[in-house]
Specification:
The protein has 205 residues and is mainly alpha-helical. It has 10 helices and 6 strands, in the order E-E-E-E-H-H-E-E-H-H-H-H-H-H-H-H. A two-stranded antiparallel sheet has the order 1-2. A two-stranded antiparallel sheet has the order 3-4. Strands 5-6 form a two-stranded antiparallel ribbon. A hairpin with a 2-residue loop joins strand 3 and strand 4.
C-alpha cells in the first residue's frame, strides 16, 4: 500500500522527507517545503476538531478543500529568470508581458524597473513612471505581476496570467492555440490553460 492523501488508512505512511506537490508544484511555508507528514498532521487536526468551515462536507470534500486552500497560499512561485537584461531578471510571467519584444525594448524595461526599485517607489508610481517615460510594456500587468511575485501568494500570479491572456482578441479558434503556445508561463503551468481557453471561446466564438 502506498501513501494516498485521500485514504486516511495510508496516512501513517506519510514521509517527513518527501515534499508534497500539487499540480506538480512544491509548497513552501515560512521558508520550508511542506512534506507529506506536515500535510497529514494538519489534516488530522482538521478532522479532530471539525472546524465549522467544513460542516456538512464529506471526508473527500474536506481534503479537497484543504488542498485547494494550501495550494492557493503556499504553492512555490516560478521565479527562476528566463534571462537577465541589464541586471534585471525576467521571470516566465514577466516575459509573457513582453511577448515578441526586441532586445532594445527589453533594455528600456529593465532600466525602468531598476530605477523604480532603487527609488523604492510604490506600485502606482511604477505604473506612472512607465507611462511618463513611454516605456513599451504592458505596465498594468507587468508591474502587477512583479509585485505579486515579490510579496503575494502564487495564486495571485496565476490569476494575473489568466487575466492577461483573457484580454487577447483572437480572430479564429486556431489563433487561441497559437496565443497559448507562445506563453512561457502557461507551457510550464498547463493547469491554467483551460479557464483561458474557455473564456476566449465563450467570448469570441
Amino acid at each position: 500500500m502506498n501513501f494516498d492523501i485521500f485514504n486516511s488508512d495510508t496516512w501513517n505512511l506519510a514521509d517527513d522527507k518527501l515534499f508534497l506537490t500539487i499540480n506538480g508544484n512544491k509548497l513552501i511555508k515560512y521558508g520550508k517545503y511542506i512534506t507529506e507528514k506536515d500535510c497529514v498532521d494538519e489534516l488530522r487536526g482538521i478532522f479532530k476538531y471539525k472546524h465549522k468551515l467544513y460542516k456538512g462536507k464529506s471526508d473527500k470534500e474536506i481534503i479537497e478543500s484543504y488542498l485547494k486552500m494550501t495550494y492557493a497560499m503556499y504553492a512555490e512561485k516560478d521565479l527562476e529568470p528566463v534571462f537577465i537584461v541589464n541586471g534585471f531578471p525576467f521571470s516566465k510571467a514577466l516575459c509573457d508581458c513582453c511577448r515578441d519584444t526586441e532586445k532594445e525594448t527589453l533594455e528600456k524595461i529593465a532600466d525602468a524597473m531598476k530605477y523604480c526599485i532603487n527609488q523604492n517607489l510604490k506600485k502606482y508610481q511604477y505604473k506612472q513612471y512607465f507611462f511618463d517615460n513611454f516605456i513599451p510594456a504592458n505596465k498594468e500587468f507587468f508591474v502587477e505581476i512583479y509585485f505579486a511575485e515579490q510579496s503575494s501568494p502564487r495564486k495571485s500570479v496565476d490569476d494575473l496570467i489568466i487575466s492577461f491572456y483573457s484580454e487577447f482578441e483572437p480572430e479564429t479558434k486556431e489563433e487561441i492555440d497559437s496565443i497559448i503556445s507562445g506563453s512561457l508561463y502557461l507551457s510550464a503551468h498547463k493547469e491554467l490553460i483551460p479557464p483561458i481557453k474557455e473564456h476566449l471561446l465563450t467570448r469570441y466564438f
